[in-house]
Amino acid sequence: MPTKDHSKKIISLLLMLVFFSAVFYIYKKNLGGQLLGQKGQKNFTQNSNSAPQNINTNSQITSSEQDVVEGTLESDNSNSIEPADGQRSPEKPDEALRQSIISYINKKLNELVPPPAKDQWDIPIFYFVGNSQVYLELYGVDTDLVGLKLLYRVTKEGNNFKLEEEARYKESKDDFVLASGKDDFRDYVKEEYDYNEDTSQWEKVDEFTESDNTDNFNENTSFSNAIVK
Q: How many CB atoms lie within 10 A of CB 148?
């Protein structure tokens, strides 16, 4: 039969065993949590490092695509002009020739069409039908209702051009009315050229037919037959 002292030693050993078991359990639990935390932190770091790269890559693609779109739109303004319906000149548009005609007329403008008394012409507007017919639209800078629209037949003579006036319109309260000559190109598609002050160039900005503007005339008035004397 075990003595009282022997029983105390057994109890002490059991308590120590329980204590060390508890310590080992707590240590193992804490170590496992640290390892799990380190693994999670590593994965988060990797994901955090890769996320900005993905965002930047997508941003670069978007920016590049935007640059291409904007560059395409700005590279050629004429591509954005909607083609007009109507009869067209059989002449293939010659941009270099048209620019030469515009330059020649501008140099000879006051000689071709003397400006109003005590006034001068504002920047003109050109409308081409093919390359051989051009309308010249003029307005006074300070004087009202002195505007003119002239139709010229253009032929090249050496380094210069010959301009034959085929029709002349005068500005009225509502629009231009035919004052002299005959306009055989009223219903043809006209290509409009305006002066771009930002680029200092004459640029095609529109194309249309006169039938698009019929609301400007009285129902019983024929544009081609209206004569102002």
A: 19
The tokens for 82 are: 């909607």
On whether the pTM is more than 0.85, the answer is: no
* Distance, CA of 162 to CA of 141 (rounded, Å): 27
**How much is the mean pLDDT over the chain?**
76
How many other CB atoms are found less than 10 A from the CB of residue 213? 11
Q: How many residues does the chain have?
A: 229
Give the residue extent of every domain in the chain.
1-75, 93-216
Question: How many Å apart are CA 205 and CA 194, to the nearest integer?
Answer: 7
- Indicate the range of 27-36, 119-128, 216-225 predicted with least confidence: 216-225
Q: Which residues pair with 177 in a beta bridge?
A: 170
Buried b (16+ CB within 10 A) or exposed e, 45-72: eeeeeeeeeeeeeeeeeeeeeeeeeeee
Give the burial class of 195: count Cβ atoms within 10 A of its Cβ; 0-12 exposed, 13-18 middle, 19 or more buried: middle
SS3 content of the chain, % helix, strand, coil (to 5): 45, 25, 30
pLDDT for residue 72? 37
Q: Yes or no: say if 172 and 216 are a contact pair by the CB < 8 Å rule.
A: no
- Two tokens, residue 101: 């005609």
- In the chain, the DSSP E strands lie at 125-129, 133-138, 148-157, 160-171, 176-181, 190-196, 201-208
Whether the Cβ atoms of residue 162 and residue 61 lie closer than 8 Å to each other: no
CA 98 – CA 206 distance, rounded (Å): 15
